[in-house]
Amino acid sequence: MAQIQKLDVQTAIQSSADKFYGKFKNNMTELSKVYPEIYKNIVVLEGDGKSVGSVILWKYVCGSNSNSVTKEKIVAVDDKNRSITFEVMEGDPMLNSFKSFALRIHVTGNGERSFVKWSLEFEKANEDVPHPNMYLDLLAKVTKKLDAYLLKA
């Protein structure tokens, strides 16, 4: 019987936690401009794209799959703790391999050091499905790229 599993990756950033979180939360669709090699298109389908209930369609490159598409719903936003949780509603190839998949971004910092932590919670469709490490690698790259972009801004 499959069970919910969790993986995390944490990346140090040079920009402030508030600036990083604010840019990510308020301008998610701009990631396709910041990192066009990865994000081909990001469209808000429902809501404002930054609050609970918003639905976002992501077209991106992950690993060897250049045509990844997911539809995600924002299920939790905690501005005080700089955290957003997304639940994957539809997705190819993601939901072909997983019964459920959720991801959370949590940005922490005290002014001198800031970190971005991504957490994935998932239930594999079967035991043969590998852990989704390629998604963690992708999110770590996106974090570094957005941080570099913010430092230039």
From TrEMBL:
Gene3D superfamilies: 3.30.530.20
Source organism, top-level taxon: Eukaryota
Biological processes per GO annotation: defense response
Record domain Bet v I/Major latex protein: where: 2-153
Matching InterPro entries: Bet_v_I/MLP, MLP-like_ligand-binding, START-like_dom_sf
Name of protein: Bet v I/Major latex protein domain-containing protein
Pfam families, sorted: Bet_v_1 (PF00407)
